[in-house]
Amino acid sequence: MRGSFGQNQASFQAVQAQRGSQVAVAHDPVASSGKILVVDDDRLVLATLAHGLSEAGYEVIDADNGDDAILLAREHRPDLALLDIRMEGMSGFDVAAYLREHCKMPFMFLSAFTDSDTVRQVQELGAVDYLVKPLDIGHIVPAVRAVFDRIRAGAGVPVQPLVPVLPVASAPALSALSAMAVGVLMHRFSLSRLAAADRLKRMAASAARSLDDEAERLLEAVERLAAPAGD
Fold first, then answer.
1. CA–CA distance, 82 with 76 (Å, rounded to integer)
2. On the chain, which terminus has fewer CB atoms closer than 10 Å, C or N?
3. Whole-structure pTM value
4. What is the pLDDT of residues 47-81, one digit of tens each?
């Protein structure tokens, strides 16, 4: 998918100038916080993600299409994959299915889509998290870090799908639907993940609805606003 990510072209060129291949590693792998495969067919988004995660201490492997992503995953065996969903050729869902079946690798999605079909597929594939674009890299890095913390804490135990990456141990588990609604609130009101989850909880309590019911109403409202006039 194509779109602005809130970063300028100069940032993209600076990152590209440092990169001579598909693999971008800004830190010594021995000292890295973990190895992550980042996949997005928008080169500006990809460069922004790769640069931000490298600066945060991760060894980053990037690909701008699904075929290369699978080849790189097989060669480098990253600890986690961060996948765009809507891409030309193989979709992020296709890549995720391969990583799950053949690499036993946890993955998370980053996408602008929150429709019911997307929610269903995210749930069925077992993503460890779902982030809604556009998001500042300052929100993405903590989410990635939280997933890596869960990977290390599990000591080889598969990471459970869609456990919330909230920075408190007592935070309630979120469904895929609620996780997407939290992502929308994070973007729309520039909230942290914890603050957005708390806001959704308060909205649900005020309307005497369940968290998922409130999340569904919120996502439906967003879809109506985004629909072309006359639909």
1. 15
2. C
3. 0.59
4. 999 999 999 999 999 999 999 999 999 999 999 99
Adjacent-strand bridge partners of 130: 109
Q: Pick the closest to residue 79 from 39, 37, 110, 31 (CA basis).
A: 37
Give the count of beta carbons closer than 10 Å to the beta carbon of residue 166.
21
- C-alpha to C-alpha distance for 76 and 22, rounded to whole angstroms: 12
Residue 175: what are its φ and ψ, rounded to 5°?
-75, 170
Measured distance CA(210)–CA(114) in Å, rounded: 19
pLDDT digits (tens, 9 = 90+) for 193-222: 777 787 888 888 888 888 888 888 888 887
Please name the residue that has the structure tokens 């869960």: 150
Whether the CB-CB separation of 203 and 214 falls below 8 Å is answered with yes
What amino acid is encoded at 160 in this protein?
Q
Helices 116-125/176-189 angle, 10° precision: 120
